[in-house]
Specification:
about 375 residues; alpha/beta; nine-stranded parallel beta sheet; elongated; binds pyridoxal-5'-phosphate
Length: about 375
């Protein structure tokens, strides 16, 4: 039973179920905007967006125009918001595909408007992240810029991004509260424009903070069943939608004192049964997992030994019975989540799933 070399199994019904759980948790008047940037965090943006659309989701966010056009062409009919940079030379494409562009600054807004298309857009406001957006410190200038954009472009909303909403310390909570208050202050200044989309909630914000002025919870990571921060507790019923698997390509005994892999970084302290797994850093297995990470074989943990190679790595399967050519190996799935793997690396689950290479076959679980 050899299922291939290395693949992910994605259960779209889990993403849809997660969506329904979050949708039902939102307060009156707030919808879920599904963030499907970076190929839906490695889950496949077209497949994910179409499944969510069938489940009733009408609003999507991506990071760039190519992602936007791809899901539009796949059949997404609702709102698609680009959260990041689009070269203004592509204004006609934004217009033609009815994609909503984030306005990153007043300089950007003016450059886009000069292209002569009434592009759908929403103004980004910087309430403390210092990444993109109009700085809200100067309320009057901010208001002026928003009104100007509303004249020249098809302005449909305002949004801001919370940068510490996943952290449960008094300092972070106060900062988030202040971000929301600053955002609401600007929104109030231009309330007469009656912009339909005013929103400030990402996954963490939508789960653990309150704002009366957010029409969307922009949910990314939590839709995929992962956590913004390892310490977070997700609502009942939320599950990861992606498993990552490979197979054993060879099993051997490594004798006491022999070493495994490049640089000979692992020495067998006694005779060990070592399996070679057909997946490596070119597939997205982080090389820093060398001698640190683990995978699961027959439901049992097998430590990664030696350095992760480009296309293969070795794992210690001593004491795990019945490991043969073709035995499945779980990198993410039963035994450990992407969040758990990230924890070993000192990073976040987002990076683990986004790093799974396009070389890895995506398989969609049929339901
Ligand atoms: C990526 C992103 C989100 C989604 O973030 P998650 O933490 O994955 O929910 C929301 N809003 C903006 C502006 C983003 O860039």
């Amino acid at each position: 039973m050899n299922g291939g070399r290395c693949w992910t199994e994605i259960d779209l019904s889990v993403i849809c179920e997660n969506y329904r759980i979050y949708r039902d948790l939102q307060p009156e008047g707030r919808k879920v905007m599904a963030v499907v940037k970076a190929d839906a965090y490695g889950h496949g943006d077209r497949e994910t967006a179409l499944a969510l659309q069938a489940a009733g989701c009408t609003d999507f966010a991506v990071s760039n125009l190519d992602e936007a056009i791809r899901i539009r062409r796949a059949g997404v009919t609702g709102q698609i918001l680009i959260l990041g940079y689009t070269p203004v030379d592509r204004a006609e494409e934004l217009f033609r595909h009815k994609i909503t562009q984030a306005l990153l600054s007043d300089e950007y807004a003016n450059a886009l408007a000069e292209k002569g298309f009434r592009v759908l857009c929403q103004y980004a406001l910087d309430t403390g992240m210092r990444r993109i957006g109009l700085c809200v410190d100067e309320g009057e200038a901010c208001e002026r810029a928003i009104r100007e954009a509303a004249e020249k472009l098809e302005l449909t909303g305002l949004f801001t991004h919370l940068c510490a909403a996943d952290t449960d310390t008094p300092g972070a909570r106060a900062f988030t509260k202040r971000q929301i208050a600053l955002f609401e202050e600007i929104a109030a200044r231009v309330a007469d424009l009656k912009l339909p989309y005013v929103h400030c909630m990402n996954s963490a914000g939508g789960l653990w903070h309150e704002s009366k002025s957010s029409c969307f919870a922009r949910l990314g990571i939590v839709l995929y069943g992962l956590k913004p921060d390892y310490a977070n507790v997700l609502p009942e019923g939320i599950r990861p939608a992606l498993a990552w698997k490979s197979v054993v390509s060879m099993v051997k005994t490594v004798r006491t004192g022999e070493t495994v892999g490049y640089g000979r970084t692992y020495t067998a302290p006694e005779d060990r049964v070592i399996a070679t797994v057909s997946c490596g850093y070119a597939d997205g297995v982080n090389r820093l997992l060398s001698n640190r990470g683990r995978v699961f074989v027959n439901g049992k943990a097998a430590p990664i030994v030696g350095r992760v190679c480009m296309d293969q790595f070795m794992a210690d399967v001593t004491g795990i019975g019945d490991v043969l050519l073709g035995t499945p190996v779980t990198l993410i799935g039963e035994g450990q989540t992407a969040d758990d793997m990230a924890q070993v690396l000192g990073t976040i689950g987002y990076e683990i799933v986004c790093d799974i290479s396009p070389r890895v076959e995506r398989r969609y679980v049929k339901v």
